[in-house]
Amino acid sequence: MSDYAFGLKTPRDFLDKARREIRRLESAMAEGSLASELDIQDLAINAALTLWHVADWIAKYPDDRHRAAIDQIKHERGWQKSNPQDVIYDYVLIDSHMALCAALANGVKHFELYSAPRFDSTRILNPSSQVYAGAAPVDLETTMSAMPSVRAANPLQMMFPKLKINDVGLPAMVAFRAALDYWDRFFTKYHL
Length: 192
Hints:
Layout: H1 11-29, H2 37-60, H3 64-77, H4 84-92, H5 96-110, E1 140-144, H6 148-153, E2 159-163, H7 172-189
Antiparallel strand pairs: 1-2
């Protein structure tokens, strides 16, 4: 396969890109950093976009191992889905950290979310105990658009997800690291 996207060739290359983006975000957030609030915001958006879109690379990569992973997921779940992207999306969205990345990525990419995030705040890791918390440790805000004509046509159509990057709720870095861990387990489990 030829280089497609500036030297990225495989889903693992795209996952490594996510790692680099998270390191950049971590550096920008470090005490004493000269990064502006907008720089941090941009880096966080890039991290969420890349973490979520690893799924696209897996679904579309023309390799026997990746197709076998999709078939194995279908078999494990008893799914009859034929579209590899549907299989990967539905499987990955079971994890709330990945659902959070999907909500952030799709919200910023498409300006709005067309349906409520498949995000379960009771299934988010508690940063101190590394176990699932029983309460909502993350502040995922959704607000309605100020566009009255769109809101009137479909009031649920215009939701904007936001994750605060601070010590209130779940820091974005915790969610992004959990998403990286998810992908590491996924790649190991399916031998990718």
